[in-house]
Amino acid sequence: MRLLLRQRSILPGFGLTLGFTVLYMSLVALIPLGGLFLRTAELSADRFWAIISDARVVAAFRLSFGASAIAACINLVFGLILAWVLVRYRFPGRRLVDALIDLPFALPTAVAGIALTAVYAGNGWIGRYLAPLDIQIAYAPPGIVVALTFIGLPFVVRTLQPVLEDLDPEVEEASASLGAPRAQTLWRVILPELWPVLLTGFALAFARALGEYGSIVFISGNMPMRTEIVPLLMVMKLEQFDYAGATAIAVTMLMASFVLLLVINVLQWWSGQRHCVRRS
Amino acid sequence: MQEEQRVSDGRVVVGAPRGATTEPWPVRGLLIVVAMLFVGLFLIAPLAAVFVQAFSEGVRVYWGSLHTPDTRAAIKLTLLTVVIAVPANLVFGVAASWAVAKFEFIGKSLLTTLIDLPFAVSPVISGLIYVIFFGIHGYLGPWLARHDIQVVFAVPGIVLATVFVTFPFVARELIPLMQAQGTEEEEAALSLGAGGWQTFFRVTLPNIKWGLLYGVILCNARAMGEFGAVSVISGHIRGLTNTMPLHVEILYNEYNFAGAFAVASLLTVLALVTLVLKSFAEWKFKAGLKST
After folding, report:
1. Do A234 and B125 touch (CB under 8 A)?
2. What is the Cα–Cα distance from B35 to A138, expressed in whole angstroms?
3. Are A120 and B276 in contact (CB under 8 A)?
């Protein structure tokens, strides 16, 4: 214990709490996850590759990554506008909208799925106006993008808001007093400051969208090769007792998630650094 | 000449900082309209749709579909899961944040990253790892079968998957809060002769209570609403291993839309209550941070 502790503290309970934390996480998360990797190690490299490069799996990966990227881009643009409006402007209903932003965190994904389907299906409130224009949202790839946009909506807004609140007004005043038009101040002074945070929000929304299952199964129509996402494919393989197939896809998916987690950590460290430099 | 103009320009700008550091009103109006349209399309429309669909066949049908034995069983199972998973994760969250926030040790950043793990893992994979581990073809499956213990396609599996998906919530809220508060108050209590538990309950706990509540609210909402992980491990046995979100799916796939949306409306009300409590806790939490 002495070895683990770098600074000695007079507070009690280090051994107890750390021990409990490590034990709990090992039992709940680390050992079962390790089991998944062990299972995959039993597969030969050829077999693993054969599963991963199957046309249906490749199509699912392409769809999952593509739809998640599009949804995260939509959230990047509209999340920025939304965060800006909520922080900078005063208008009736602002607080209510601010509280509603977290709805996708609080609403079960299955409920979100059936509700979005009801709105965007051909006979839904919004879908009915798009159907004559030959735009199909529910039961087609755009439906997946809509659901993933919903799921990822809070991430960009919530990562941006505290940073916007902390922006030093003096910088904007300086820019304006030096004769810069407002648009130039926004583009050249404020936006560069926000990039790391925007990218963090984007990465968080993207990572969340990649794994999403609950809302998609209702709105996508689940057609192989066309609207079948990776998590759904895993469920299909499991239901057919194709454990090897499911684990191989799961491990590939996990690798992608870990890379994203790493990217997010680096981005957060980067924006933290910039923040500190500016503060000091 | 030009110099002077610039100076006077500067003065005008400095004299009217409001106009210079905000957008002209048409831009402001446009941005607000765009933002509200986005909120309307993606948040308010689906929210309203749940209730409109739930009551589409009248209050009687709504009431009736909430009182079927299957729905009641689903509600009971969801509550049972929450009653086990949330307290377990509450204890875990407090222990983990005590260790991480109050002490320095090697591997601390690795531990904090691992706590966030469930957020990075697809819910389907969260369920899958338990199927692989406890299932009949899994590592512990044969042993469990011999002792007649069922985990997969049974309640223990549902609880485990829920615990996995929700364990970061409390710890994530508490770690930054406890780090910001430091160790001085606890050290003072200890040096005045208080015991370890006494220090925790009388000094630390009052300081973190709003953050703790905030974490528990989020944990509870996710535990009640988790779909992917639970769906993989539950086996969808009606009346036995069907939680509320799974029951919504079953009713929906049977084209019983009014019933599906009726159960969904209960979960939606829960989500709205969560948002209200969350805003309240956040407000208290910010007030608490300011006073410290």
Report:
1. yes
2. 23
3. no
Range of the domain at B41: 1-54
Shared domain check, B64 and B39: no
Map out the domains of chain A with their CATH numbers.
Answer: 53-279 (1.10.3720.10)
Last residue of a domain, one of B54, B72, B95: B54
Mutating which of A111, A158, A255 best tests the B interface, going by the most B Cβ atoms within 10 A? Answer: A111
Distance CA A128, CA B172 (A): 42
Neighbours of B63 (CB within 10 A): 10
Contacts of A225 (CB under 8 A, 6+ apart): A55, A56, A59
Least confident among A171-175, A228-232, A240-244, B287-291 = B287-291
pTM of the model: 0.88
Same domain flag for B94 and B106: yes
Q: Look at A45 and B236; give whichever has higher pLDDT.
A: A45
Last residue of a domain, one of B15, B38, B54: B54
User: Could A12 and B45 be called an inter-chain contact, meaning their C-beta atoms sit closer than 8 Å?
Assistant: no
Q: How many domains does chain B have?
A: 2
Quick one: closest CA in A to B253, which residue? A218
The CA R_g of chain B, rounded to the nearest whole Å, is 26
Considering only CA atoms, which of B11, B4, B18 is closest in space to residue A172?
Answer: B18
Tell me what pLDDT residue A280 has: 39
Helix/strand/coil percentages in chain B, nearest 5: 80, 0, 20
Same domain, B239 and B279: yes
Is residue A246 within 8 A of residue B128, CB to CB? The reply is yes
Q: Examine the pLDDT at B7 and tell me if it is beyond 50.
A: no
Q: Alpha-carbon distance B262 to A190, whole Å? A: 46
